[in-house]
Fold:
Amino acid sequence: MPNYEDPFKEWLDEDPDRKVKLFYIYTRIMIISTFLIALGVIMFILIQFHII
Structure:
């Protein structure tokens, strides 16, 4: 089986700050998507009960 190298891992290993920046971006996206899903569920419930 051939040995494949991961170019993304090499790119991250060049500068440790890239891992931190990527972690912050990933964390922000997770938080924002959680709120968007919750807002969508609330809107769906309000529309289903004809409140909106």
Summary: The helical segments are 7-14, 16-48. The radius of gyration is 20 Å.
